[in-house]
Amino acid sequence: MVTSRDVASAAGVSQATVSRTLSGAAGVSEEIRARVIKAAEELGYELNFAARAMRLKRSGTIGVVVDRVTNPFYPEVIESLSRTLDSLDLRMILWDSQGAGEKGAIQAIGQKMVDGLIFTTATSTSTALRTALDAGAPLVLVNRIVEGVRCDQVDSDNASVSSRVAHYFAVNGRVRAGLITGSPDASTAHDRRVGFVRGAAAHGVEIPSEFVMDGRFSHRGGYEALQRMFEHPDPPTAVFCSNDLSAFGALDAARAAGIVVPDDLWIVGYDDVDMASWEAFSLSTARQPVEEMVRVGVHLLLERIDSPRRPSTHQRFVSELVVRDSTGWVPVPERALV
Fold it and tell me: What is the value of pTM for the model shown?
């Protein structure tokens, strides 16, 4: 039977380093971590989770709270989380924030089923988040953040890249625009709306109030919002959607109404889910570095578990605008103002 001592010998490190690496502890360099994991895989070393849990008084399991898994963005986040946690020999329990999901996550912390929580859909009204914070539970927010909350948070520059979308519309003569936004208490929807409106004001893009609609981050919401916009005698020539799923709905509504994209209308989404590149959609969209955001979020959580009193940190990543057929493959200006 292969032991941790065998792994240590093969990797050229101490047995303690193997233990720290496979438990996900902080303070292990990426180079050492890679050597230990490679040696463990080559030797066929299987970590005994029950024994490790008893020894370290940890479960080796991380709880993850996501939103509707029917939104293609969240399965991609889950895949990234699974890859990252698997590389650290950690397991994952998943809860959907709809219904009793968040409550289940808090109960799991109290019962020591999980060592910490990753929230991907937290809002300022989240009771579960407040409960976890009051209990001192190790947690990190990834994707959506909550201002004023003292915990580790990871997101992307939602406002900046949304402002750039407005500039992109302006320099290409698309100066009458619509905005399909999402849940107002979600930081992603708020920041994307603020950034787009700010960019529109700076670059001469008109956004009539009747063209600002809540698409509920859903396909149906995007579909219905675009339908209502085109009931107006002077409809928009470009629409920015706060996520790709609502943009897919807008594209489908345009097709159903005989509106030619991109000739009559430009549509831009946000997230760059895999479906956005499919020929059926070919959606121009803002791409978040999800893999990197998730990797950093996981490591911040592990550091928090090891050092509960460490000052909280907020890490923000740069997104990029990816152009496809929904904007006619027109390149983004290299020096767009934001």
Answer: 0.81
